[in-house]
Amino acid sequence: MNAETPITETEIASLVERFYAKVRVDPEIGPVFNDAVRNWDAHLTLLRDFWSTVLLTTGRYKGNPLLAHFPLPIEERYFARWLTLFSETANEVMPASHAAIVTHKADLIALNMKRVLASRR
Ligand code: HEM
Hints:
Blueprint: H1 9-24, H2 30-36, H3 40-56, H4 65-69, H5 78-93, H6 96-119
Helix pairs in contact: 1-3, 1-5, 5-6
This protein binds protoporphyrin IX containing FE.
């Protein structure tokens, strides 16, 4: 695979599945997810749609990620852990050039989310 190969739905599916498998057992951020997510299959489908929309502009995700995070007990420091696990997973499941793209997007979204959450507290 070279740098010009587009990111695929298969890569996104692997990223989402493996990332949340790590998240669920993570001592720092796992509890936030395990307390909030009632149906993991539905969550993984939603997050596949989200990343497909962000990365491939498929428009399958119609939600509002910011709103979904307002009620959650998220500490600012959790974002660093989230991003570390995300970047680590991206590099395991896709070529480095693709991992760099998805990690960059996640960084931007996380930064914005962090700012908005901080401004509400
Ligand atoms: C410390 C960081 C984060 C924590 C602890 C966290 C936790 C969660 C939890 C528990 C849910 C499920 C909420 C529910 O089902 O009621 C959720 C949903 C979601 N998260 Fe995060 N999240 C974090 C950061 C992020 C980031 C950086 C992104 C995007 C790059 C993201 C994208 C999403 C999306 C798209 C949803 C689904 C929202 C919807 O219901 O439409 N999250 N998050």
